[in-house]
Specification:
The structure is a homodimer of 337-residue chains. With 337 residues, chain A is α/β, with parallel strands linked by helices. Helices cover 49% and strands 13% of the residues of chain A. Chain A has 14 helices and ten strands. The radius of gyration of chain A is 21 Å and the shape is globular.
């Protein structure tokens, strides 16, 4: 109910996802948590709503203005909290939301707890690249300050996600830094470099700001301060280009024509920042499958998120993360950090 | 001598700058420090070289591969060190270089010392914005780790630079953060927010990654890790657009035409990252006027750097920085940090 167009987009997306799963012969139930009356009405408006969709009533809504840290206490009857409780109780295998990102992060961490071996859950974001596949950058805001160990865990989780969900063999993991040499950067980053070089992931070394778009790595790990700044900076490229191209198009009919032709190309390229294409971003490290979508998620985005959540459950992503961190922790080299 | 096209670009730029200064009736001498034979030859190739240009011989060169921290010790006869010594001895009012940025930073800090009240010298970079004027972001790499006090000093120095050199009245100073609320971000950033809110500069509060291109502030302060990552990320936008547009232009004659028309516009927009337009970036906080240009600086860029250096000297930028920090330090609020 916390999405910008809830519950219409959520309902339409669930119906779409249910049909996609049925077409693959996947047994499933999609439980819509929220205002029963409004959800029922939206469901009735779709032609032939699938019987696999059920409703759990929730009388309250977490808005984008609610303080993320306190919603568990202040809004226990919200669709967000009720939905996470269904997941916690074992009556669901995965949870998705297009609501308040910070609130989902905070409530999910509090209610579900962390995967064994994970110090800090993380949220990543997909960046388009000059290559053929996107780059997963994490963390992008969940952890403004990090320890070397956190960065190492982000790398393990991001790498497993890219491999098992993204289908990338031996994903290349880079550590975001201000130079290629292992001695560059802050103390935290230098120590993280040593951890990454010795353990578990396909570590390609430090990468720099230019290497994200450059497609040098499949997974880039960084503190949530830097990641958040770069993500929001990247999201401002399209508006910036728009402003420049608009000024240019006003100069002549020819320039107007050129802009009209090229604008859709640029828009498509930068649409890769859109959550729609990738079906939201995973909240990695909590004990349960959780996907967070943009507030403006369309029905297609919602459907993609549901399918993605199902995949994450099917491949046992969280169990794999736990196993991977357990074997890393039992290796003596990690103890030095 | 450390620039990519030295000494040709440097000599041509000096000749150009000398003529510009003469046209403004500015009494001046431009001292070229480096290989006397090669500089003389380059000067002879220009028609009617001005008598205001002199040469100081230097037999060695700091290259882009030299370790910045050790050039003072390892290359005492380089044009970089000899040039800085002319500045230190009081026989010059300003120093410019298109050589190794890290080496200039390190050698200038060591040889010249810091302005009284400045804990850490800083290098900024100009970003284009959707508005009419660029945004000065600092630090972009000189200080990977910062204290609140450093960020405050960056703000004072950047603000005075934007006002006195950029001609911007009451420059808007923003603190780069991951949210607008003063409670957001790391401890360092939160403390810096308090310092900035109480002292001296026209502080508009936190700004986010999107606000750099958005033109919300004239000066944005941040740690050198984040600033460096964002700068290099920004520099990768044009190559990324190029790759996308190239793929698109191969699709049809019409798309090839559209790209041919729009590409120069995009290039011009992103050329604002180019040092040429702004004539290098100032190294702020050292006891002496120092400007650092790109290794690829053209004669025009060199000339702009010389004129800019003259302006910085004329308006007594460093004295103003010292005065401003002295009055801030004597205010009781700063002591709390």
């Amino acid at each position: 109910m916390g999405g910008d167009t809830a519950p219409e987009s959520e309902v339409a997306g669930a119906v779409h996802a249910s049909r996609m799963l049925a077409a693959r012969n996947v047994e499933h139930t999609i439980e819509l948590v929220g205002d029963r009356t409004r959800i029922s009405a939206a469901l009735q408006r779709t032609s032939d709503p699938p019987s696999t969709i059920t409703i759990t009533d929730a009388s309250d809504v977490v808005t984008m203005h609610d303080d993320p840290a306190s919603v568990v206490r202040t809004k226990p009857d919200s669709s967000l909290i009720k939905g996470l409780e269904v997941l916690r109780s074992g009556n669901a295998d995965a949870f998705i939301s297009a609501g308040n990102t910070g609130a989902v992060l905070s409530a999910a961490t509090l209610l579900l707890g962390r995967i064994r071996g994970v110090a800090r859950p993380t949220i990543g974001a997909f960046f388009p690249t000059a290559g053929s596949r996107p780059c997963l950058v994490l963390d992008v805001g969940a952890n403004a300050e990090v320890k070397p160990q956190f960065l190492y865990e982000f790398a393990v989780m991001g790498s497993l996600y890219a491999e098992l969900v993204g289908g990338i063999e031996r994903p290349r993991v880079g550590l975001l830094n201000i130079g290629e040499e292992p001695t560059k950067g802050t103390d935290v980053v230098r120590q993280a470099h040593q951890l990454l070089a010795r353990n578990g992931v396909n570590f390609i070394g430090n990468v720099e700001g230019r290497d994200i778009f450059g497609g040098k790595a499949d997974v880039v790990v960084c503190d949530g301060f830097t990641g958040n700044v770069v993500l929001k900076f990247a999201e401002s490229i399209m508006p910036m280009l728009k402003a420049v191209l608009l000024r240019y198009s006003e100069r002549s009919l020819l320039s107007k024509l050129a802009v009209a032709l090229v604008a859709p190309v640029l828009r498509r390229m930068l649409a890769d920042f859109d959550y729609q294409k990738y079906g939201g971003v995973p909240l990695l490290g909590v004990r349960g499958i959780v996907i967070i979508g943009h507030g403006k998620s369309t029905p297609l985005a919602i459907a993609n998120m549901i399918i993605r959540a199902w995949e994450m459950h099917r491949i046992r992503l969280n169990e794999r993360i736990e196993e991977s961190l357990a074997s890393a922790h039992s290796s003596p080299t990690l103890e030095q950090a």
